[in-house]
Design brief:
The structure holds two protein chains of two kinds.
Chain A lengths: L18 H25 L31 H36 L2 H16 L2 H11 L3 H12 L2 H15 L2 H8 L4 H37 L11 H12 L5 H28 L7
Helix pairs in contact in A: 1-2, 1-10, 2-3, 2-5, 2-6, 2-8, 2-9, 2-10, 3-6, 4-5, 6-8, 8-9, 8-10, 9-10
Chain B lengths: L2 E8 L8 E8 L4 E5 L6 H8 L7 E6 L2 E2 L8 E4 L3 H4 L6 H6 L6 H7 L15 H12 L6 E5 L7 H18 L2 E5 L3 H7 L2 E4 L1
Parallel strand pairs in B: 3-8, 3-9, 6-7, 7-8
Antiparallel strand pairs in B: 1-2, 1-4, 4-5
């Protein structure tokens, strides 16, 4: 036996887990982290971020792990509440956009020439204007605030994903196994659900994962110019843009911890998506 | 219940006519060979007979009646490349069950092992996949089978095994077969009658 080819025994490894099981567990842990942040943020009392001018500009300590800002508000509580709000907005926006992309992409590829031309035109129309402009218009039309911005985010982020899905469906539609399925007497609907949809899952997942941070950033951008959430709400975008002003005064903790937390959340999200995709991929089923 | 193609004509878009006034009749239980140089339209004719394409002229009938486009098509085509003919995201059980309930006997005849049913297509070899494609095409309502270079990419032993199984099923069910192949020996051995295309 070649020594370098020696396979590690189960007894030797500390954890009796294969790669699939490990992926599964990291996904669950990441999901728990996300859910905890959202739930804790919703449950946290508004009192925790009340203005307290005695404890202004404190550096991180045991009492205030993330320090306090120029109004004496506890940054830890603000960060958690901000993350909760941002993750909520991001999730709703990204899920809405992905659904629109899926429905329109499928419709364009399967419902004939007229539908295809109409939807392609719509995609081009939305892509020809910067996201932010349509987003501002829509958010403004719906009167701003949480509702306006969520609807705006949903209605602006779908076009590029819709185009990817349309192309993918067109390719699968002409595959041999779909033609065979048709000769086996399967209906269009059955083929769409059983043949086409499983092939779209990776595209949808990746599109969704990429869209999520994009949505959060656009949310904070619109909030920054005053058309989104109101400034007293602790969204992560607001926290970051406010703390920019105080960075030069040496109050690094105002931007550092919230930024780091946002990074962690996006990372956790990305990890879930990537693991999920690998777990469902037949060619990776033996890893 | 004979399969009859009458005065078939076909061309792709506005290209030259691939063939016109082509006639072909296959009796139940008969095995017809179809040979000819590449690019003459053998595969296209097969696709027309099995309903994948509509002929621009003429018509295809079974027992004198036009074939309904609803339900399982009574003429089933087996393609040359099995790896393209199965959905890579389906387990083999699902691939098999697509055409309806199959005889257990068919699995033994074709040498499909129970263990393969829970695998993904990329975990099987080409020969193993082709057995599944043949089994799927031999559903209970199949009257005619068209084998378009069905065993061309397989080794001699697998070829023999698959054909043995298909022939047995064909005699048992009075099923007509059209064999498309460039291999003169195979066609000579299998077919009652050979059509030069």
């Amino acid at each position: 036996m070649i020594p370098s080819l020696k396979v590690r025994n189960k007894e030797e490894s500390r954890f009796f887990l294969n790669r699939r099981q490990r992926k599964f567990i990291t996904s669950i842990l990441s999901a728990i982290l996300l859910v905890t942040v959202v739930v804790v943020g919703v449950l946290l009392d508004e009192e925790r971020i009340a203005t307290n001018l005695i404890t202004r500009n404190l550096a991180p300590s045991l009492d205030h792990p993330f320090g306090t800002d120029w109004l004496g508000r506890d940054m830890f509580a603000r960060t958690i509440m901000g993350l909760s709000l941002s993750v909520g907005v991001g999730l709703i926006g990204a899920i809405g956009s992905t659904s629109i992309a899926l429905i329109l992409g499928m419709a364009a590829a399967t419902m004939g020439k007229v539908a295809d031309r109409l939807i392609s035109w719509l995609i081009d129309l939305f892509l020809s204007v910067p996201h932010l402009v349509t987003l501002i218009l829509i958010a403004f039309t719906f009167g701003g605030g949480f509702k306006g911005i969520v609807i705006g985010l949903m209605l602006t982020h779908w076009p590029s994903l819709a185009r990817v899905i349309r192309a993918e469906v067109m390719q699968i539609r002409s595959a041999e196994y779909v033609q065979i399925s048709r000769q086996m007497g399967k209906s269009k609907w059955w083929i769409a659900v059983h043949h086409i949809l499983p092939h779209l899952t990776p595209q949808i997942l990746i599109g969704f994962m990429l869209m999520f941070p994009h949505v959060i950033l656009h949310e904070s951008a619109v909030t920054f110019i005053g058309l989104g959430l109101s400034p007293h709400e602790p969204a992560i975008g607001i926290i970051l843009s406010e703390s920019m002003k105080y960075l030069s005064a040496g109050m690094w903790w105002l931007a550092f911890f919230p930024g780091l937390c946002l990074l962690l959340i996006v990372q956790a999200f990305d990890r879930i998506g990537e693991n999920f995709r690998l777990l469902m991929d037949p060619t990776k089923s033996n890893d | 219940m004979q399969l009859e193609a009458k005065n078939i004509g076909f061309r792709y878009d506005n290209g030259p006519w691939l063939f016109q006034n082509t006639n072909l009749t296959v009796e139940p239980g008969e095995i017809v060979g179809l040979t000819g140089p590449s690019g003459r339209g053998k595969t296209t004719l097969c696709r027309i007979l099995s309903g994948y394409e509509k002929p621009l002229e003429g018509n295809v009938t079974i027992g004198g009646l036009p074939i309904s486009s609803k339900g399982v098509h009574p003429v089933q085509l087996v393609f040359q490349h099995p790896e393209k003919a199965v959905n890579p995201r389906w387990k083999m059980e699902k691939v098999l069950s697509e055409g309806g309930k199959l005889d257990e006997e068919l699995f033994d005849l074709l040498g499909i092992e129970q263990e393969w049913l829970t695998r993904w297509p990329n975990e099987l070899s080409g020969g193993e996949l082709q057995r599944f494609c043949v089994a799927r095409a031999l559903g209970p309502s199949t009257r005619f089978l068209i084998a378009d270079e069905m065993t061309t990419m397989l080794d001699a032993i697998t070829q023999a095994q698959i054909w043995q199984a298909v022939l047995e099923m064909a005699t048992k069910r009075e099923m007509g077969i059209i064999v498309v192949s460039h291999e003169a020996k195979l066609v000579g051995r299998l077919c009652d009658r050979v059509v030069k295309f």
